Amino acid sequence: MRAARVALTVPLALLIGSSAGLSVRSSEPAPSTARSTTAYDAAVTLAAVDDAAWRRGPGAAQRPGRLLSRRPAGETSRVDGARRALEVRYSTTDRRGRVAQASGLVLLPAQRRADAPLVVYGHMTTGAADACAPTRGTPDSTELRRMQQGDRVAELLLAGGAVVARPDYEGLGVRGPHPYLRGDSLARAMGDMARAVRRAFPEVGRDWVAAGHSEGGVAALNTGSRTGPAADVPGLLGVAAITPVTQVDVLATLLGDAPVGAPPVNVVVSLAALILKGQATEDRALRRLLLKQGGLSPEAVALWPDLERLCLEDLGGTDSWGGLSPQEVKGPRGDEALEEMKNGLRADDVRHLRMRLDLPIRIDAGALDSVAPLPFTMQLAEEYRSRGYPVELAVWPAEHSPTADQAASELAAWILDLFDHTTGGPR
To answer: What's this model's pTM, rounded to 2 decimal places?
Structure first.
């Protein structure tokens, strides 16, 4: 693993010139990982039951941003410091503009207070299958580590009196596909959950912060866009993004000729498959190119159903997408498909967002991150600053996943400070 990672970072090192001399925060021990073998069948069954109830009920007629149901959260969704952990269903708008249901978690702090701060926190990439929704987690889930990666941040926010809402995102744990890494979809999930929680829980105040990790960092930044689907949700005080992925098209180019599927290439291949699937949910021509017209190799086409069955940990296994090298993923028209993927990534990159003016932005980066490389994150911060957006960048001596835990104390303090002067007002 070490040799493969060094090989990956050699071309990236050419981009790091300006990172020398950066102040890197001190390290904390990373949490232990949890691995298991099954959980998918139970999650799919539960999603089907919930979907049947949704179709029978009146929820489809509601407008986005309404709470539809609540129930006690499962054991893997409970967080220390929460007096209640609730799995909720709320209405949102899907990729086709239709009102649909979404799921998520609401954590209420130990002490009830009036006008409590609200933080909507987006989770890191877990996959695109129903079983990958964090609220669908079980003790034997192979994806449990990523599902719970934001728990430390949530604990600190709860201790500060905040209500924490954690959306599963469109198509995770509910009917329909997950448009992986698509900015507008992620922003709708975040904004509509903020609306729903503020309406349904009287203790929650008007003001809120959007935060998240990895895919959730992309969700948070898109939520802060002044032209995006969450732009009309009032009371947003700031956004915080941990290791937001950017310039993924460049990373795909660097890895495009890798001859073997080995760590961390196997993870990137799995992420690329999720990206292609996410884009194909919105582009039928791309889907045809990939599955019917030679964009993907026969081996990759055979693995396509895994994207709706397995989560990221298992997708990276040698018996799934992680067993293919980037070259082995490509079919006869693979270069064309790769260019289409990169075009979509460039168009939807968080670098191009027009953020709300004067909105505080915090970005936490990992100095050892091979998924969201530090040079790319630095360029993102500088791009925002060049347009006048107030950005604070913190760098931690960590890889992609552990950065959230190492940043947790500073990040939670930064978020809670934003609520010092709340304005109140209609929800």
So the answer is: 0.86
